[in-house]
# Entry
Amino acid sequence: MIEVRFHGRGGQGAVTAAEILAKAAFEDGKYCQAFPFFGVERRGAPVMAFTRIDDKPIRRRYQVYNPDYVVVLDDGLLEVVDVFSGLKNEGKIIINTTNGVETTEGADIHKVDATGIALDILGVPIVNTILLGAFAAVTDAVSIESIVKIIKETFSGEIGEKNAKAAKLAYEAAKEG
Amino acid sequence: MVLKVMSANQAIAEAVKLANPNVIPVYPITPQTTISEYLAKFVADGDIKAEYIRVESEHSAISACLGASGTGVRVFTATSSQGLALMHEIIFAAAGLRAPIVMADANRALSAPLSIWNDQQDSISERDSGWMQIYAENGQEALDSILISYRVSEDKKVLLPSMVCIDGFILTHTVEPVDVPGKEDVDKFLPLYKPDHAYLDPKRPMSIGTFTDPNYYMEARHDMEVALEGAKKVITKANSEFAEIFGRKYDFVEKYRSDDADIILVAMGSICSSIKDVVDELRDKGEKVGLVRVRVFRPFPTDEIYEAIKGASKIGVLDKNVSFSIGGVLHNEIKAKMDVDAYGFIVGLGGRDIKPEHIKEIIEKTKNPTTQSQWIGLNKEDI
# Structure
């Protein structure tokens, strides 16, 4: 079973990202589960969301405490939340940042300038789909084709096309990086 | 069967679409809100041909349901926590007036302290109302239970309302694969509602819900007791026809590796999924543990629970509720109705996450009991 934890802030789309990842994995022929853990109900408050992917139906419903992968939508959270908490030894963490990231645990960190890509292509700093593109590149958990397909299903029309383009760009950049 | 990935709230809304009620009065409340949003969209898009009433409170939502149901049409509403508590007065009236309303409750803790997160105190606190109650384990069961509930509630031998309870966030906001049945199959299982009992019709004027003096009140309440107990036969028949059409078999209780178990846990709702994983892990190590999941809580399936747990030497009952000074409600009801060695564990109040180590702790404490009832997962330093 692959377990993923997303860290974001209310309104940034961490919950949608977790759901798109689950649906994309299902599209790949896997079983899936995704759910949020909200703090207080308001924009800007730290939010977690979780995705589980497996070859068989998934039952367990507690939060993900030992993720294989962590995705951080907002590097400002690094100062207020221990995003590395419980990350498996061989685990990977994908962070939307252009800054240096301090860790004492030797985690496999993948930095993505998702905000930069978002402002270029979407014109707004919404990074969830972009990080999913990078996620597909640095993990074997899901295919970029399914990520793109589900993004287009989730957001209709031009918004879907732009998000799909941004996700693919992040995928290519992370593959090269 | 075509599986689609969706939340239990969406699954509930899809079930309502298939059941096609005529009146849907809903007031939004976390974590039920997306049910009311999906239903508003379905009605606006013409996918449900119903009157969607935007009421000003939950008391009005259930009152509008009762009034509409009184005219002999199918109705639906959904609520949670404080909303259900605000409905309390009409919850009892709806059962007493024998209105076959179906309602979803997104199980959430009651204030205070204020919490938006899951436990089952809200619906458990309505257990004496005369409503039927089903606790779903997953999104699929949430969807299926709505269809089964209409079928049972509207049966002329029953005519009592049903509450389908789904754990807030843990189910309401969890997406997972769900099969949405075809309309033709649903129409076979759940035909159009045609009331042939008392209902309001301008062509045949009558009044319902009248004042009742001491000569009649007890008989009306006794009729409810007989109807709720009698609902068990109707539920059994509905379950078996549901299985024939849709291939999914439900029962009052679900037995999971419990037939030869020495220690059995009893619980309701989504926590049972996590317990099954722990049972498998311990079984692999040779421990004879099992789970009995209580799916139908009202009518209370005394015989079915007893048959399922009587072979165990000790039983641990998990409650996401508490009746202060006496303990968990399911635990106490099992103790009251059955001669078994059962111990109670209060868990998961206000969204406290129930981890595998908590489930293992409960199994150990059931094996070596020190007290009848205890709370699991408390932060010791905060007590």
Notes: Residues 217-246 of chain B form the longest helix (30 residues). The mean pLDDT of chain B is 97. Chain B has two domains: 3-246, 253-382. Residues 263 and 364 of chain B are 9 Å apart (CA to CA).
